[in-house]
Amino acid sequence: MSLFRAVATIGGNTMISRVLGLVRDMLTAQALGAGHLSDVFVVAQRLPNMFRTIFAEGAFSTAFVPLFAHRIADEGGAAAQAYAERAMAVLLTGLLAITVLAEAFMPLLIPAIAWGFTERPEQFAAATALTRITFPYLLFISLVSLQGGILNSLGKFGAVAFTPVLLNIFMIAAVFWGRRFGHVVEALAWSVSIAGLVQFLWLAVSCARAGMALKLPMPRLSPDIKRLLALMGPGVFGASVNQINLFVSTNVASLLPAGSVTYLYYADRLNQLPLAVIGIAVGTAILPTLSRQLRGGDAAAATDTQNRGLEFAFLFTLPAAAALAIIAQPILSVLLVRGDFTEYAAHETALALTVYAFGLPALVAVKVLVPAFYARQDTRTPVRIAVASLVVNLVLTLLLSRFFAHVGNALATTAAGWVNVVLLGLALRRRGHLRLDRRLLAMVPRQILAAIAMAGLLLLADRALGGALRDAAGWVRYLALAGLIGTGLAGYALFVFLFGAARWRDLKRLLRRQAA
């Protein structure tokens, strides 16, 4: 599968998931508003997701995929499957231990992410109870990460990219169920863990269809598993550094006025839409491709893969960032203001989203650059760089939140993201692993100009549609927002053509070209 097709497959399925996620957020905002109860649910689902990022997607997956890809190339599918089964047995054992300990000591974990809740006993008790319900999600979704690494290494991206859709379907159903029977937040918590089980079963079937029906042997630390754990070590620390950033941000927000955790959550959710559709899609497609190319000694192909990854990433990320910064308020007002979610809450969320948007290109670039380290089985350098970004985020969060409340948290995150991408790029260039080609250097400035021109067009369109966006009936506001977004998309496509910010013939060729 070509790189462009792989990115399109992952990005397309991710877009479906994110659209459903947006519907989920709209319904959840309407039901829970922005206050103590919504803050509790944000924390309840964030804690297992943090552990998942640290132990599964952050450390395990990035260490496992290159090793699994090399095993397939060197020893064949049967040996690779046996290796994956040994890895799954060890992963499952560790996850069970973590889950049991977390359930037992949950009252000690909640203050680590939301210290402010300790001053409000009812909120603390609710967070503890709900997180005990959601925490088993860690167990299932971490196994999903392993299964996804297998399928991605085999070039089968569709089933993995569709997996998050299942979570959103279950959570949307939970909102309707909870509103009917009067227990929305409890229904949402249960839906998270149930969806994790369904996701695991979904990919188990997908792996079987791909010829990788995994069995569960007795866990043992064989030499190859010890090698995997050794590579995971820096990854665990690196992912932990990123999660410490989130710990700090959430903790500080929990000390701010009620709703601050929720404002940051919804702003981040909107910001994550282009990050997931573009950045994660490109990064996921690049890692196994780079691993194969470097294993085959084709450095030129690896360089081209990384340059095209950056080109695609910026082509679609720059307009997304510009749009989120310019029309954050109408987007959030139209989508979220209903029920218990007020116009004031939308305004506060929009302030954070605007700041997050300026860091979006950096976050996407990180997703493209980091696989260059992992494909070379270097998990240490990204960790050192992540530590530097942690220090920046920690200092700026503590400083800026005093003056700008939750917006200060967003400013700190954006600054830390740019520090991260700059240091990653410098490290790769010093080693000769990042050589920006003429095409990329010619295209990115033109993409920036096209995004700026689109931003100006959006400002004009926002003024023209202002009445319909703010004062009209519900369905008219949706049409006006669709018109605003459609104007931006059409305008950007036009400006890309006028400025020569993309080569359409190259994109067509990349649809057919084999990236491996």
Can you characterise this structure?
The protein has 516 residues and is mostly helical. The protein has a domain at 36-256. 85% of the residues lie in helices and 0% in strands. The protein has 20 helices and no strands. Helix 3 (60-75) runs parallel beside helix 11 (260-295) and helix 8 (158-181) packs antiparallel against helix 9. The longest helix is centred in the middle third of the chain and has 36 residues, at 260-295. The protein starts with a helix and ends with a helix. Residues 510-516 have low confidence and may be disordered.
Topology of helices and strands:
Blueprint lengths: L2 H30 L3 H22 L2 H16 L1 H28 L1 H8 L7 H14 L2 H17 L4 H24 L2 H26 L13 H33 L4 H36 L3 H28 L1 H9 L6 H32 L5 H25 L1 H25 L7 H27 L1 H6 L2 H26 L4 H9 L4
Helix pairs in contact: 1-8, 1-11, 2-6, 2-7, 2-9, 2-10, 2-11, 3-4, 3-7, 3-10, 3-11, 4-7, 6-9, 7-9, 8-9, 10-15, 10-16, 11-12, 11-14, 11-16, 12-14, 12-17, 13-14, 13-19, 14-16, 15-16, 17-19
